[in-house]
Amino acid sequence: MPEIFRTQLMVVLPETLLAVFAMAVVLLDLVIRKKSVLAGISIAGAAAVFYSLFYTQGFAFNHMFVADGYGIFFKFIFLVSLVLAVLLSNKYLSVEGVNHGEYYGLMLFATVGMMVMASASDLITVYLGLELMSLSVYVLAGFIRHSARSSEAALKYFMLGAFASAFLLLGISLTYGLTGTTSIGGVASYLQLHGLAKNPVLILATILYVVAFGFKIAAVPFHMWAPDVYEGAPTPITAFMSVGPKAAGFAVIGRVLLVALGSMSFEWSTLLIVLSILSMAAGNILAIAQTNIKRMLAYSSIAHAGYALLGVIAFSPEGLASMMNYLLIYAFMNIGAFTVVTILRTEGMKAEELSDYEGLSKTHPLLAALMLIFMFSLTGIPPTAGFIGKFYLFTAAIKAGYTWLTVVAVLMSAISAYFYLRVVMYMYMKEPAKQLEMAKSYGARFALLLTGLAVLVIGILPAGLIDMARAAIIDFGS
Amino acid sequence: MVTVNWFIWLSLTLFMIGVFGFLTRRSIIMMFLSIEVMLNAVNLSLVSFSYFLNDLRGHILVFFIVAVAAAEAAIGLAILIALFRNRQTAQVDQITEMKG
Q: Structural domain boundaries of chain B?
């Protein structure tokens, strides 16, 4: 085997494999009538990619791409959200009348983009991964072509996403002009060597990065697109993009802010503290006023971005590990909640209003119990995974000296109990008003089982996951 | 003597024109155009940095940006057409199905 295979192409094996699967799905769509087969191929692809992750290590392509533990942990999060979202999709798409094969291909391409972002060790790679992810997700958000709401969601997401990526590019350009390199490690060592921490151009570039990544993780004040897009997009895609692109945004924040601009930590952490407080406050308070459950979960996801930012602000290995841990837990609990919303969508019933959940415990006790677990977990009540995630985040923030910020975060999660537990109240303390049916989808039921189990198991036995996250970042930034 | 600063000021001015256009225009097509102006402003700054640094990375990134911007325009116009079929409008103030 030629040298280049072993040293270079093996490192990008997972991305290559997933891209091949994505193209195969798009081509097979022409000959396969039964679209659930394509969903099966996508899940098989994700499994193969997961297996191949263990064979990747080191740099490739002149240090533009790196496969380290940090990247691999994030890729695991992306694959989890991909598999869960694919499991939800088949039945939902036939209910909406848009069961086309490109859907799965686009989802795989979006995941490839996220994986490239998580492994980027050069700003050019960051940009390319970000665009591959975003362009696929824009189309997916508008996938229900005959629905005005879906198209509107896609357009809003697209306009603001493109606007934000122009800011990212300006930031990259200024960094490049100042340091003469786009490599993340190169920028870091140049800034350290020349002590440019107070340079105004660099401060401008830092602000531009924070704006661009703030858009991707939907942090306030760059969150305006999120509620509309989450409400209008197909529910499985809402589940997917509330986790995948958000985690990918955090992965890039870790690479660019923590490593490349590590010497600017005072500047960006000041900005991120403002973003974090605003996100937690606006997300949790605005969620109270919502009557549409997808919109409520959108505001909740804004608030969760605020919590996860605490791990970045702490600027310590402990903070980084707890942020990664939180994002994985968030993937399970949030997609779990969206699975319940998806499974109640049937031919005759949209089931997106909160009032539709009245008396769910009487008609579907098991589904209501699972929704209860997800809502508890999103609030952060033990023994669910959400509590563990917040516990490690807050510990890391306190250890880094941000006690007051942690107090704010705890207060905000107390507010969040109001609207999460309101769903529980509707389900358990009201009489059923409408007869809701569960969609007959084995995929969605399996996803429900997986997410429910994961939330409980991580909640009761948390040590394994946080140890995994800690082990993953040992070689981070080297 | 033309220094790199001239190009950077030109590029930043163009970028701000793009930002201003995006924020003030109400027609989606004009907003697309404003985004293109912003991207090309960045391209200009990258090329001039690249030229003055005697380094090829900036040129490479410009090629990527041009390619991605083409894909972006295709997808954006496709989304706009899908929306236009549903709503018969291309003005952002009239796209208010969801708010709150």
A: 4-87
Residue with tokens 């064979």: A55
Where b means 16+ CB within 10 Å and e means fewer, A166-175 reads bbbbbbbbbb
Contacts of A464 (CB under 8 A, 6+ apart): none
Contact B46, A176 (CB under 8 A): yes
- Structure pTM? 0.95
CATH number, span B4-87: 1.10.287.3510
Give the span between the Cα atoms of A86 and A104, in whole angstroms: 7
> Is residue A183 a contact partner of residue A64, using CB atoms and an 8 Å limit?
yes
Closest CA to A476 of A75, A71, A54: A71
**Is residue A243, in this structure, part of any structural domain at all?**
yes
Domain span holding position A366: 3-472
Cβ separation B4–A127 shorter than 8 A: no
A65-67 and A58-60 beta bridge pairing: antiparallel
Set of chain B residues whose Cβ sits within 8 Å of the Cβ of A158? 75-76, 79
How do residues A157-202 score in pLDDT, each as one tens digit?
999 999 999 999 999 999 999 999 999 999 999 999 988 778 899 9
Distance CA B94, CA B79 (A): 16
Residues of chain A neighbouring B58 (CB-CB closer than 8 A): 173, 176
